Amino acid sequence: MKKLITTMVLAAFASVAGAAGHSDDWNGAQKPFKIYGNTYYVGTAGISAVLIASPTGLILVDGATEKGGLVVADNIRALGYKLKDVKYILSSHAHHDHAGGIALLQKLSGASVLAGAGNVETLRTGLAPKEDPQFGTLDQFPGVAKVRAAADGEVVKLGSLAVTAHSTPGHTPGGTTWSWQSCEAGQCKTVVFADSLTAISADGYRFTDHPELVAQFRSSFAAVEGMACDIAIAAHPGVNDLWGSQERAAKEGNVAYINTDGCKSIVKAARERLDTRLASEKR
Predict the structure, then answer these.
(1) Is position 236 annotated as part of the catalytic site?
(2) Which helix (H) or strand (E) holds 193?
(3) Does the global pTM surpass 0.85?
(4) Which of 14, 28, 78, 144 has its CA 20 to 30 A from that of 268?
(5) Closest Cα to residue 92, out of 76, 113, 106?
(6) Beta-strand runs (E) in 23-138
(7) Residues 6+ away with beta carbon under 8 Å from 42
(8) Residue 166 bears catalytic tag
(9) Active site includes 93?
(10) Which of 95, 96, 132, 195 is catalytic?
(11) Which of these is catalytic: 96, 230, 236, 241?
C-alpha cells in the first residue's frame, strides 16, 4: 500500500520536473540559488526548503527528507552561511518528505523548531496521527526535539526578519503556510512558502465521510488565495514551476520569480483536485 500511495503522491506532483530534464528526486542534490533579496532556495531537486538570511541570524523553512537534510545543510554552507546561525526551523507539515531532515538540521544548528499545533506531536515522534488522511501509509522519520506550536498569525522575529505563520490545515492537521518580506534594490516583495494543499489519502479513505476536513481544506484555500503574495514557493517546487522561473531568471534576473497570481494558481489546482475527488466518491 505504501508503494501505491508513493506513486499517487509522485503523480500528483508530476510537474516537479518543470524545466526540461530537471530531476524530481526528493533526495537529489540541487545547487542553492537566490530567489529574491535575502531569500534562497536550499532544498533538494524535488522538495523545497528556503533560507531567509539576516546579519542577526538565519531562518530555515522545512528540512526535506532524512537524506535531503544533508543536501540542505550542504547548500546552506555553499552559500557561505554557518549552520550554527540558523536560529529557527519552521515546518510546513509533518510528513517525512518535508520534515524528515529537520532532526538532523536541528542537531547541526541548535535551532528551535516551530510548527502548527496539529503537527507538533508528529514532529516530536516522527509518527503520523490517525487524523491524517494518509495515516497507515506514511514513513516514520526521526523525531525532533525542542518543538513548539506556532499560532495562526504569530510572527517569528529574528533581528530584522519577521515571518508570519498562517494556519492551513487539510493535507495534515497542523499544516502551516509562512510569509515574509524580502527586499532587493529598494523593492520589497511578499514571499509566501505555501504548504501542500492537495487532497491525498490512503486507500479506502473518503473525504466525503469527513466534512470537517473538507471544510479545513476550503478554509485553507481561502486563506492562501487571499494572501498578499508576490513570490510563491510551493512545498513541491514543480507545483508552480519554480524550475521554469529559474531558467527565466538566468536572462531576466530575479524578477522572473515574481508572480502575483502564484498563490492563486496553487489554490486553483488544489481546489480542482479536491472537487474532482469529492465528485468521484459520489459515483
Answers:
(1) yes
(2) strand 187-194
(3) yes
(4) 28
(5) 113
(6) 33-36, 39-41, 50-54, 57-61, 86-90, 112-115
(7) 32, 49, 50, 51, 60, 72, 75, 76, 79
(8) no
(9) yes
(10) 95
(11) 236
